[in-house]
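Page 37, continued from 36.
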């Protein structure tokens, strides 16, 4: 039966359990209070009855006629009428006067006059007053006893006045409604409060039971930590409420991020603007350490009130790298097609000169075209021995040529063939040259001068273009992730190139990148020797 009872209790709805438990606690508390109040009221009535009995006894003991009657042959004839009048006026149960031997001189029942009193009179006859509850011939009563003294102070008898317990109980029952009114009001308020609390909790839990809430929580945890997309939830004040495993990995967070403002735990840059809601728009591409992420921030509104936001993060580092490579390949293909047309035109010129019989001029034209391109190749290979970087510069030179831009490497450039790992150097040079190509193309053409020099402390990369330069007001902003002054195209997200350069050089202790205006923009980057603290792979 006990097991069935527990099972039945668990089947009750949460709101019902709350009401019943609240009512049980209220009833138990009020019941205990009422019991204590009744006991205290009964004790108070007993004390009042005792004081009343004692006061009446003292009054009787001081009556001269009563004291004088003790010397007469039949004292009961004087004392009993006086005692009965006083009993009738004070509504006492009895007023008994007895001598020093305990023989009654008065009693409500005349038949008991002349008999011994029913309780021990020794304490009172010794000269002390007494107040207490005793049981006598008339029943249980609250009694007050006072000794009677003669003119010389000797104890010659006693007065015992009693109020029956039944009379005290009747008084208590008469006062009981007054005692029960506050608990009744408290019980009513407790019932109403329990009902309102149950309704509020039910509304806040959307009517779901505890087991349903637990199941939803387990499902939410399983989904959030199982998906391969970073999720961060914040409250209305921007504090982190939830962060799943993928978000921890992408943002480099741990459990200490919970409860802290999201803007304080994410890295600085464009990502902080996105998660903080300062950068609007869907699918914001942000750079976090060595990863390129797509971030979305969606405000959460419940019942018309803003309660926070959810930030989702997708890792597109590899995809971004592939897009950039595809863009470079397309640019190179366009350059090769342009060169194909150019060489086709040159072949037509050579064929025409030969048909006209001007062989010497045809040979000079061929030599002139070959010398210009060969000079560029020799200049790059001679000063940049590292093959990967040399190939990068040759590809960029082809793209520049197709766009009507001259790209050359300065004579003081020097990078040994056995330089080693050039991935960071390729990132820096490639992005700086791409930025210079866009800048020069915006003014219809010009030149780009590249300097790469291996020094004792590190490699210095300088890219000087003849474009419009950099506005002084944005010098401190151009290396921030997401900042761009160019129009976005369909080939990729603008605002990553210079941010990648900045992060790459700063991962090496002492690395930096700077920009100055000198008949265009001159970017100078310094990569100290040694392994970076964290590598940029985008």
């Amino acid at each position: 039966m006990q097991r069935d009872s527990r099972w039945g209790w668990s089947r009750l709805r949460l709101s019902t359990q709350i009401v019943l438990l609240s009512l049980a606690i209220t009833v138990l508390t009020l019941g205990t209070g009422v019991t204590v109040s009744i006991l205290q009221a009964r004790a108070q009535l007993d004390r009042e009855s005792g004081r009343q009995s004692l006061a009446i006894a003292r009054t009787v003991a001081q009556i001269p006629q009563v004291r004088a009657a003790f010397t007469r042959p039949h004292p009961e004839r004087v004392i009993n009428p006086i005692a009965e009048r006083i009993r009738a006026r004070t509504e006492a149960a009895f007023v008994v006067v007895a001598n020093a031997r305990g023989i009654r001189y008065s009693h409500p029942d005349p038949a008991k006059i002349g008999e011994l009193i029913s309780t021990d009179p020794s304490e009172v006859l010794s000269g002390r007053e007494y107040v207490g509850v005793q049981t006598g011939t008339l029943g249980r009563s609250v009694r007050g006893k006072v000794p009677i003294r003669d003119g010389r102070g000797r104890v010659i008898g006693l007065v015992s006045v009693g109020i029956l317990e039944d009379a005290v109980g009747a008084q208590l029952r008469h006062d009981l409604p007054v005692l029960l009114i506050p608990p009744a009001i408290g019980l009513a308020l407790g019932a109403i409060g329990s009902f309102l609390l149950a309704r509020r909790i039910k509304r806040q839990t959307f009517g779901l039971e505890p087991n349903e809430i637990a199941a939803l929580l387990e499902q939410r945890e399983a989904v959030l930590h199982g998906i391969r997309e970073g999720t961060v939830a914040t409250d209305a004040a921007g504090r982190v409420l939830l962060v799943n495993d993928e978000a921890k990995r992408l943002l480099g967070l741990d459990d200490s991020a919970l409860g802290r403002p999201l803007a304080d735990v994410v890295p600085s840059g464009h990502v902080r603007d996105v998660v903080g809601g300062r950068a609007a728009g869907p699918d914001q591409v942000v750079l976090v350490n060595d990863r390129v992420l797509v971030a979305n921030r969606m405000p959460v509104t419940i019942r018309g009130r803003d309660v926070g936001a959810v930030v989702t993060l997708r890792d597109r580092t590899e995809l971004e790298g592939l897009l950039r490579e595809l863009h470079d390949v397309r640019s190179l293909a366009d350059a090769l097609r342009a060169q194909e047309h150019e060489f086709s035109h040159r072949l037509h010129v050579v064929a025409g000169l030969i048909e006209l019989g001007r062989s010497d001029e045809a040979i000079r034209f061929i030599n002139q075209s070959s010398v210009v391109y060969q000079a560029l190749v020799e200049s790059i290979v001679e000063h940049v021995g590292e093959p990967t970087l040399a190939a990068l510069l040759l590809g960029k030179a082809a793209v520049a040529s197709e766009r009507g831009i001259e790209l050359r490497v300065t004579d003081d450039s020097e990078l040994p063939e056995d330089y080693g790992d050039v991935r960071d150097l390729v990132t820096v040079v490639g992005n700086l040259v791409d930025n210079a190509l866009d800048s020069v193309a915006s003014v219809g053409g010009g030149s780009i001068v590249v300097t790469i020099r291996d020094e004792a402390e590190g490699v210095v990369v300088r890219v000087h273009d003849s474009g419009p330069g950099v506005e002084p007001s944005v010098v401190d902003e151009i290396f921030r992730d997401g900042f761009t002054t160019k129009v976005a195209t369909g080939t990729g997200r603008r605002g990553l190139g210079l941010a990648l350069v900045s992060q790459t050089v700063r991962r090496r202790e002492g690395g930096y990148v700077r920009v100055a205006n000198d008949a265009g923009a001159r970017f100078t980057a310094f990569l100290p020797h040694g392994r970076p603290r964290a590598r940029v792979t985008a």
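The CA atoms of residues 154 and 443 lie 135 Å apart. Flag for discussion at group meeting. Confidence is low (pLDDT under 50) at residues 1-6, 487-493, 534-538.
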